[in-house]
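Quick one from the shared queue. A colleague (R.T.) flagged histidine kinase as missing a structural entry in our internal table.

Convert sequence to structure tokens.
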Amino acid sequence: MNESIHGERTASELQDRVTELVEQQTAISEVLRAIANSPHDMQPIFDAILDSATRLCRADLGVLRLSEESGFRRVALRGDRLLVSRAGSSFPVLAEKGSLPSRFTTSRLATHIPDFTALLEGDHPDDHWITAVNVGVRTGLTVPLLKDNEIVGIISLVRKQVQPFTDQQISLFTDFAAQATIVLESTRRERQYREAQMALAHANRVATMGELMASITHEVKQPIAAARNNARAALNFMDQNPLDLGEAREALGCVVDDADRAGDILDRIRDHIKKVPARKDAVAIDDAISEVIALTRAEAANNSVSVRTQFGEGLPRVQGDRVQLQQVMLNLIVNAIQSMRDVEDGNRELHISTVAIEPEGVRVEVQDTGPGLNPESLPRLFEPFYTTKPEGMGMGLSICRSIIEAHGGRLWATGCEPRGALFQFTIPAD
Ligand code: ADP
């Protein structure tokens, strides 16, 4: 008799455990799905973590805070609408050290408060507890998110009725929080790494340009100075009385030679750049472009630019140097983002698309909603040193065109209606 009761219990316990595990698995899968669907933005991931945690433990409200220098910053607040709005306005976004959320982390363990109202019964109830009760918090459970024994954040779950969490729910929540921390931290780290890469790519570009400029300046300065001296000499000969036309002509001839020399130096530098052999790999252009978009994510977000992509079906691989092609994309994207900085009506869209073209190849389009290209600048865009930016060098588009032409393709720009610019390039297939 006893055995059969015992046996039945075990079976139903096992059933409960299976249900719990399935729920926990579903909860973490939802977080992973959010990560896969949101390559650029962390917010949907924070929200998915909280939605899953509140559902898993049947809570009414969830709060996720991440650790920073001065305390814990609230990055997501989800659940019962009224509670969300009250908690949002009653608790500061940054919970400083010593405040209620940060006090929950001292033990590094889950903190369960079955009944908040009971905490108000002493003579000197704490202000933080009073606020929580006024907001409508009755039962609370907080778990620190630990990474290598460091607290990287906290998740709190709240119920609006006094209804303590069960031991099972507490352990379920603790396990979920541990898994969510791993996912959250590796995603954060990977994204920080991408941002650092972008900053590096920028710095590299500027440094290379700076060096190039310095050497061009150095080499070209000399014939220009000589030309100036010879021109001045020619003027002096012309001022002489009687006029010495022979000497003046000779000096002007030297000016022409100096100018030719400056031109030759520039041609030599250009030939030298062209001679650097480009790698010829079979490049999946969509992947290469996606990487650059990921690199420029922060730049776009900081300038409130939304990025849309539309990659063509069944694109052939193109033949070329993946890094150089990415450099072209980086330039076009950064230019597009910069062009939209002063757009005032808030419509800042960057649209990047690829299409297969005949004969075998791919066309890439980068379109923005910036001020566009005026008729005077259009023919000059690809000239070296043409820039309208105070800090610009005007080398970007000229280098982009050299790269694309070295790949056997074409790069051109057109204005768009009602506004914006469209840069397009073609690349032959592998
Ligand atoms: P830089 O960015 O240093 O100015 P570039 O060669 O990349 O050099 O660009 C040259 C010029 O072309 C820019 O200064 C700007 O006037 C113009 N330009 C480039 N991209 C755009 C764009 N998307 N919209 C409007 N103007 C652009």
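The chain has three domains: 2-195, 212-275, 278-430.
The CA atoms of residues 216 and 269 lie 8 Å apart.
Added to the table.
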